[in-house]
Amino acid sequence: MEKSANEDVSRLSNDRASSDLEEQTQLDTKAPVNETQSKEALLIVVGGFCALFVSFGWVNATGFFEAYYQHDLFPTYSPSTITWISSIGFAFLYLFSFPMGILIRRIGCRPVLLVGSILHVLGLITMSFSTQYYQLVLSQGICSGLGSSAIFYAGVTTVSQWFAKRQAFAIGISASGSSLGGMIFPAMVTELMPRIGFGWTVRATTLVIVVLLLIANLVVKDFPQPSPPAAPTRSAPQGNAAAEDVKQPTLAGIVIDAFKSKLFILTTLAGVLFSFGYFVTLILLVTVATIRGVPNPVYTLVILNAASFPGRIIPGALADKFGRYNTMCIMTFISAVFTLALYLPTQDSGAFIAYCVLFGFTSASMVFLSPTLVYQISKPYEVGVRIGILYSLVSFSALFGAPIGGALLPEITKGLGPSSNYTEPGRWLILFCGLCQALGCVIFVWTRWAVAGCKMVRV
């Protein structure tokens, strides 16, 4: 394993003409543009912010609807059944990252963003008229989820293209849009639903999404990328190795190389494991808060997303300064500790709110630092496909995590409310979340060790 990982690092260092270990594991610091002066690059960040606000920010807020569906719309359905609606939306957000990566590689970000915008808005409009379970699965889960995937991936990719030297920080700023969306949408729904009902509440949030999508579609554009290596006009040098160097890389070749890379496999495995604990916590937070008697439980999701706002930006800045793998290891470790040491045993509302703040801040880095980790261990033309593979595999944790978590909540099989049969409601669910986060952290540490060993370097 260590030998293969070192070969990955050596391959990257040869491509980037670097001999120092720290430089081997860092992405090429030659920025595509003058990032401090380019107004165009700043507009790209604004567009990415809007794209993530309406895609990941919306999906982050759908945990509120879990409680509404369970209590008002489908009181006879089990929690595990209810969670499939939001789980499909989360899963589609990631599952289609790989085909989205292929589309962006071939036709660019703007067309993908436009089609995603149409699908997302169409899904939300049909959601507002839905009254049956299957209708919500089709509208909120599939149609809106597919559109969100296109919007999300186009937003992340375009920022990655335009920034290199301060890429993690730029992605962190645009990613903070998802946190703001996760704050505003639940607050809107909480205030509007008792007054105007479910349908008009969803339409009101859709109007906000339409305005932000218009901004994103106006400012998002692709950065002119250098062509991948191609055969020169002169005769190719003799020898198999030389011939391979001048071949144009194919999609199949990029995919095969990705699964030959030990660093990429470890990074992906760590992301998938941590995501199981992350998504289950996010989707079922309001439900757990309700059965534990937390006042105004919907605001726990607002608080968590509010805390994730600086959690997107600050770790991004730290990652650029101290190393992306170093930052990821620290943040995932703290998240797992808070889940097992604070969320699991607490019965106090104040401690529950404290957990929302701490977990919101520390866990936010996982989703949006992951692309920068892939960028760091990949060649430039491999990045889009590899990020797509990573997110597609993460989709399985989003799809199956919440139903598993719902099955671990027997306290609410007959509706929401504090349980009299359990002294620690949701303890098995929370233990599952904490252990998944801890395992993900362990694999991130293993990957960091595979890259740089025990050396205290920026990696």
UniProtKB/TrEMBL annotation:
One of its GO terms (cellular component) is membrane. Residues 41-452 form the Major facilitator superfamily (MFS) profile domain. This is Major facilitator superfamily (MFS) profile domain-containing protein. Belongs to the major facilitator superfamily. Monocarboxylate porter (TC 2.A.1.13) family. It comes from Gomphillus americanus. Residues 1-19 have a biased composition (Basic and acidic residues). Pfam families: MFS_1 (PF07690). GO terms for molecular function: transmembrane transporter activity. It is found in: Membrane. It is a multi-pass membrane protein. Keywords: Membrane, Transmembrane, Transmembrane helix, Transport. Residues 1-33 are annotated as: Disordered. PROSITE patterns: MFS (PS50850). The chain crosses the membrane at residues 41-61, 81-104, 111-130, 136-156, 168-188, 200-220, 263-286, 298-318, 325-346, 352-375, 387-408, 428-451. Its main location: membrane.
